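Here is the promised in-class demo. Please do not try to memorize the tokens; focus on the logic of going from shape to residues.
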């Protein structure tokens, strides 16, 4: 089994759509709700969320990464510099804990039919490597710590245990909630030398378990 993770460039947009909006609904979120204000969507996409997302894919920092298993797109992680994610940068509920120019993860999605199959591990690994390759000093996420399985409608924020397995640690709290649970601030500090940007991992044996995200 081979895993690959790549930035969401324009040529991979249909793969991205297969993961997050396989029925091609015009009014889908397109993973913009936590990234852009309504005025920015109008400016970038003429009111079309899909076109606004396509515009983001053409920037120097594409808005996230896709993970492939044996060539099939199975996971999506919305990640970028916190300063480029306007709704997060301006949030009164999720405030920065210091002045470090972190990159932030705002959404993690595993394609339906591929959940609980170990997708989140290579997905987060690839997202962190992408940030490191662009010089990020650290990556942050804002998950919850549920007592059991989460409602899938809010599972995109991730769970504490999922991020802990990816090398993140809790560094603070927020005033934000998801599924009525407080969201944490978790951080993974990165080395001065960047990690491999597009890591390919060959798995000899089947992956068992995974996350419900």
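The designed amino acids, position by position:
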């Amino acid at each position: 089994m081979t895993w690959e993770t790549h930035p969401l460039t324009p040529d991979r947009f249909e793969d991205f759509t297969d993961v997050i909006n396989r029925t091609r609904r015009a009014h889908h979120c397109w993973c913009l709700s936590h990234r852009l204000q309504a005025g920015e969507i109008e400016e970038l996409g003429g009111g079309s969320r899909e076109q606004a997302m396509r515009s983001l894919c053409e920037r120097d920092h594409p808005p996230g990464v896709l993970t492939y298993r044996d060539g099939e797109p199975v996971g999506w992680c919305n990640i970028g510099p916190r300063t480029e994610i306007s709704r997060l940068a301006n949030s009164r509920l999720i405030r920065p804990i210091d002045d470090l120019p972190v990159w932030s993860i705002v959404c993690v999605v595993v394609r339906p039919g591929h959940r609980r199959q170990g997708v989140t591990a290579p997905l987060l690994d690839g997202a962190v490597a992408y940030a490191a390759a662009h010089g990020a000093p650290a990556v942050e996420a804002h998950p919850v710590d549920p007592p059991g399985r989460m409602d899938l409608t809010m599972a995109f924020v991730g769970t504490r245990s999922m991020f802990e397995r990816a090398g993140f640690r809790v560094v603070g709290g927020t005033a934000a909630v998801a599924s009525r649970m407080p969201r944490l601030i978790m951080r993974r500090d990165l080395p001065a030398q960047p990690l491999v940007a597009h890591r390919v991992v060959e798995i000899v044996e089947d992956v068992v378990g995974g996350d419900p995200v």
